[in-house]
Amino acid sequence: MNMILNDLLSITQYNNTKIKVLFNSDSIFENILSAPDITSSTPSKAESNKVFNFTYADIDYELRTTFNLIGIAYQLLSSNNNSNNITIETEACIDNSTFYSGFMPTYTPILKYTGNTAAIIESIENEANKTIMPLIDIRKDGDINNYLEYGYDNLHFLDLSVLEIMRNRVYRDSIKERRKKERGSPSRPELPGEEYTSATRGEILDLYIQISETTTIIPTIRIDTTYPANSDDIFYVNKMRENFTKVIIRVMGMDNFSININSYLLLLASILSDSYIIFEFNSIQEAKEVSVLNTIQNSEYSPQIIYAKETADFDSIKREHGDNYFENIALSGYLRLKQYNIENIWFADYCGYERDTATSYIPGMKPNAKLHLVDNKDAKKICIYKIKVEEERGTGKTKQSMIYLVDEYIRKDNINILYLDPNHCDACTELYNIESLSLAKSKSICMRHNGITIAKL
Ligand SMILES: [Zn+2]
């Protein structure tokens, strides 16, 4: 046997991978390489080695493969010495059989509260074949009244952790009143700007208690395991436990997770088995995800675990100019958990949109005319259109770009029907027939379509 091909392909996502040997462009051999077990104690234990023998056109071949944490190494040997026209390809395979009924027991759309939130959740629920348990994040105290009046009534998670309270509301209201009365008068006072400061934990706790009197909520405790629980956390968490029998722990930082998580879990031990823990694995390596989830699954506590991740990796979106289609990394990450026998986990995302509007999370991002639509077949890909017409480049304006988006892409059917099919859902129908679109409207329509698509999986 003579070595005819030899290479190392570096790989960052450890899915089972199909390896193909091609003669010209015809496949002459295919097989599946199992992904390395990244939970192994040593890199060599994680490695998987396979040797395949096959014959094609009377020539014998031997394909030797090693799949480890560096990537896939292969050597192809043959009984003659000719490598002409022979190439090797690999292709990650996400196991479609995971889409069995019930593979995702519950879906948690994470939504920053706006006037559209209740309508988005209701659309998602109407189409869902699974339980929907939203997480609603309210950031401004002025939204709380609307939320209570027009909000969502079914059981849900509520996060007030980063609530800002307008401290001069009463004063501003009195000035507004005076300005109405003194219209036209030279001494009419100026309306002062809104002054916000962060709500204290005491204020947040009081609001949770007050809201829970009229709405069925599970309050959120955000933690950062970069640090162990401190005396302030202990006080807050104890107060929360005294008032609620279930909470959701929202893990924001995971730097020293395995060292510090127990200091938080211990505090909540008495209610933990009825509670929830959500991990937002944005920009977190797969190996870290698995180790974090294993830590909780192997602990003596059994809160319901919820896996959340941003739908598309923002760095690759910025890099790949001209390409509009990206892998839905939230869903592929969730599906991969099966590979590690991590089961009974709920799925959460931000309804296809990357974390909130890009502008509030990505330094330097400017508003764009945008569509973020997951494919309506299995939501494994997302199509992202970012439009910026020349005259609005470098400005925060989007009006002309939005007109262009509607005229050139939506009306002319230039968007693949897999992503925008008027028959798919009410959001698609609305978008397909839209006369004019604003950034907020586009966000809200896309979130509805994306949430509905996941809810129907
Ligand atoms: Zn749709």
Describe what you observe in this structure.
This protein is of the alpha/beta class and 457 residues long. The protein has two domains: 2-93; 97-167 and 192-366, TIM Barrel (Alpha-Beta Barrel), CATH 3.20.20. Helices cover 32% and strands 27% of the residues. It contains 14 helices and 21 strands. It has helices at 43-46, 117-127, 142-150, 169-181, 201-212, 231-243, 257-272, 286-297, 314-319, 329-336, 358-361, 399-410, 426-432, 439-456, and strands at 2-10, 17-23, 26-33, 48-56, 59-67, 71-78, 86-92, 106-112, 131-132, 135-137, 156-159, 164-166, 196-198, 217-224, 248-253, 276-280, 304-308, 325-327, 346-349, 369-374, 381-387. It has an eight-stranded parallel barrel, surrounded by five helices. A four-stranded antiparallel β-sheet has the order 1-6-5-4, with no helix packed on it. A hairpin with a 2-residue loop joins strand 4 (48-56) and strand 5 (59-67). Helix 2 packs parallel to helix 14 and helix 6 runs parallel beside helix 7. The chain is globular. The mean pLDDT is 88. Bound molecules: zinc ion.
Topology (SSEs and partners):
Elements: E1 2-10, E2 17-23, E3 26-33, H1 43-46, E4 48-56, E5 59-67, E6 71-78, E7 86-92, E8 106-112, H2 117-127, E9 131-132, E10 135-137, H3 142-150, E11 156-159, E12 164-166, H4 169-181, E13 196-198, H5 201-212, E14 217-224, H6 231-243, E15 248-253, H7 257-272, E16 276-280, H8 286-297, E17 304-308, H9 314-319, E18 325-327, H10 329-336, E19 346-349, H11 358-361, E20 369-374, E21 381-387, H12 399-410, H13 426-432, H14 439-456
Parallel strand pairs: 8-9, 8-10, 8-19, 10-11, 11-14, 14-15, 15-16, 16-17, 17-19
Antiparallel strand pairs: 1-6, 2-3, 2-7, 4-5, 5-6, 12-13, 18-21, 20-21
Helix pairs in contact: 2-14, 5-6, 6-7, 13-14
The structure holds zinc ion.
The site of zinc ion has 7 residues, from helix 13 and helix 14.
